[in-house]
Amino acid sequence: MSIANILAEGLKEFSSDVSQSQIDKLFKFKELLTEWNKKINLTAIEDDLDIVIKHFIDSASILPYIEDKDASIIDIGTGAGFPGIPVKILLEDADVTLLDSLEKRIKFLNEVINQLDLKNIRALHGRAEDFGVLNEYREKFDVAVARAVASLPVLLEYCLPFVKTGGIFIAMKGSNIDEIADSNKAFDILGGELQEIKEIVLPGSDIKRNIILIKKLRHTPTRYPRKAGKPSKEPLI
Fold it and tell me: What is the pLDDT along the chain (237 residues), one digit of tens a residue?
């Protein structure tokens, strides 16, 4: 089976309506990722098939849990644009914000946005701890998502301040989710509640992933997130 077919079949597992134009944009994204990765360290995943499965299909795995297709979404610690850019390509009506602390990645993301002619998406240079206290971003998003950024107690402090009451935070994790047991204090303080854990196997592989769905039940106290570096050094456990 060709890589294009593997991508198309994999995406069908998570989205019932994928166009050829969207698949073309994903392959253009792959070309840009491969080209820029020679100049700056964007990803350790370089094989075309691995990019398709571990980046594109993995990013698409959260689509079933975004109920509103025009949702406002923030991808925190987006890195090379995962899952935010594939989600934007596949959910064309969504409004997507990409946040990352490395400026060179933001330059790459802006190039991707321009080359793919994506609308209602922006890349911001900064830390979650700094943006999460700003009125422009605090509790303004229907969905926050983060993939392999930090342990769950730390992620909760990074991400829940951005989520509206009633919204969701989607934490994308690998096969080990023992850290959930350490997250009760963070849930209680920050206003979130564990809703569901979905274990999946990425189509075209034997790779296990866990999608952790957290509902935002009430406002996050204004003292959170704490100053940059504090959540990771002194997690709420």
Answer: 799 999 999 999 999 889 999 999 999 999 999 999 999 999 999 999 999 999 999 999 999 999 999 999 999 999 999 999 999 999 999 999 999 999 999 999 999 999 999 999 999 999 999 999 999 999 999 999 999 779 999 999 999 999 999 999 999 999 889 999 999 999 999 999 999 999 999 998 999 999 999 999 999 999 999 999 999 999 999
**Torsion angles phi and psi, residue 19, rounded to 5:** -95, 165
Strand arrangement of the beta sheet that strand 95-100 belongs to: 121-125, 95-100, 72-76, 141-147, 163-173, 208-216, 192-201
Strand partners, 124: 99
**What pTM, to 2 d.p., does this model score?**
0.97
Domains identified in the chain, total number: 1
> Are 217 and 187 contacting, i.e. CB atoms less than 8 angstroms apart?
no
Q: How far apart are the first and last CA of the chain?
A: 46
| Contact yes or no for 171/155 (Cβ under 8 A) | yes
Distance (Å, whole) CA 126 – CA 124: 6
Residues spanned by the domain of 64: 3-233
- φ/ψ (deg, to 5) at 211: -110, 115
C-alpha dihedral, 171 to 174 to 179 to 180, nearest 10°: 50
CATH number at residue 210: 3.40.50.150
Q: Kindly state the tokens that stand for 175.
A: 């096969």
